[in-house]
Amino acid sequence: MPARPELTRPDDAAIAAAMSRTLTALAALLQALGDGEHTLNLVAERTDDTFVRAQADLSIGTAPLRLAVLDEDDYCALRTLLVFALEGSTVRSAVLIATTATEPHPRACGWTVRNGWLHPMDTAELRQAVIPCPGVPTVRREVYDAPVLPQITDTDEEGPRG
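The structure corresponding to this sequence follows.
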């Protein structure tokens, strides 16, 4: 059986550039999701053939402006995983799913990480991603097209990996 590949630590400049993109992406994502109760799930396949998952629950309001994070540690873990997903050297692929609590069913949209940014998922792929495993109780989610998140590029950044 072959040994699991080792992760190579990205350089500090690449991490800093990815962190900047992460903050921009999260700001755009929260604005796109709008008012409501949201759960963000991020799953990444690392280059060492392991999967890593992070989840954060948020409440967003615009009148007055507010962002409430249910668990700061969960949000920090999600943000950190997104940094490494957008940086790209240690993550092979990643998907971010946002579920919004609505009646009669929660709504979900999703993005894949490509070229250092979040790109809307195809709704057919999203339907496959949110199908529960057999025998696992879950709530049915209605899927919709994820909004395109505007990418503001840093002029000091050379490309999607810094």
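The beta strands are 36-46, 51-62, 65-69, 91-100, 107-114, 117-120, 142-143.
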